[in-house]
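The passage that follows is intended for readers who have already worked through the single-chain material. We present the inputs for a multi-component assembly, then the predicted structure in tokenized form, and finally a short commentary. You are encouraged to pause after the input and sketch how you expect the pieces to fit together before reading on.
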Amino acid sequence: MELAIGLILGACALGAGMAMIAGIGPGIGEGNAVAKACEAIGRQPECKGDVTTTMLMGCAIAETTGLYALVIAILLIFVAPNILVNILVNTMKSL
Amino acid sequence: MKTSRRFQLLDIFYIIMMILPLAIGMVIQILTKPLSEGITLTGARIFFTIPMPLQDFYITESQINSLLVTVTILFFCLYMVHGLNERVQLKRQHFAELIVQSVDKLVVENMGEYFKGYAPFIIAMLALSAFSSLSSLIGLFPPTSDINVVGGWAILVFILITYYKMKCGPLYYLKSFTEPIALLAPINFLSEFATPISMSFRHYGNILSGTVISTLLAVGLSGLSSMILGWLPGVLGNISWLRVGIPAVLSIYFDVFSGCLQAFIFAMLTMMNVSGAFPMDEYFERKQKKQAKKQLA
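Having made your guess, compare it with the prediction:
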């Protein structure tokens, strides 16, 4: 029983960590976006406001995939262990 | 400008009503949070449940807090427009006019002239989202870090999008799924639901990640301070000195900047999605045809 619960917790933590590998993508993407925005501002300093607004919008949209991973990781850490352990306990009881 | 006594009293009433809901929220927080809990990362606490046939209806912290924030915004708006006059007499009128004009400009710029009436909706969404996120500054549970609240807003936006897609009739709406080829219909159907999910997850994930990191930092700092400064005598050793001031630096980014930015982005995406969903050329073409038919008949 303890072994099974430990396995569940460990697998949830491992899964959460692996889900956050998706954080690499938005990091690269946002870095690219900000670099290009800096270039654009350097070339045309007068349209700084527009470029900054568009960049922030683009960053937010690029961030989405990372946030999906984050939500999944948070669910795996805080929600999934309780549910899985409950299922395990209930099945053990019924046996 | 000289103001009458009645005017001043009403002003004071508005200001009190602006602060009172937040104070009530803090009192509720103090009364219901168990002392022994310490620093923990929990979701919205459930105050009471209303039994319902399908599923119990939970009244949680996030619902109460978002209602309190709404009341605060309402009285803030009433305060701003109090004493509105054609000849500007109060300083706050300039501020109110600035807000209204800039939102009008933003909406017309992003959505076009047809959607000009959407400005109040957009600013309401923006203010609600920003104030909800900022309410974590005074120690309340930010309602935006609960997916149910943000999901509700996203569903509202989804209904608006579908309404504008249906403007040219349900047949035209169904036909739009088969663009560019009929084979892609199921994928188009799925991507329809991706909009509210991505909108709600984006907002909620950003605020929640800030909360998680702040909590981790608080726990880490309290451990560190008990390790370094634990030798201080008596009560002094129990106070985690390192937690004074340092988390505020992170809070500037995670609560203030991120909260305001996400509110702005949510409003921007609402504008873009709603205005992008409306087939404007087709709609006006059909309208003109109908009018021509009427004139013939």
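Commentary: The interface with chain B takes residues 56-57, 60, 63-64, 67-68, 70-71, 74, 78 of chain A (CB under 8 Å). The radius of gyration of chain A is 21 Å. How closely did your sketch match?
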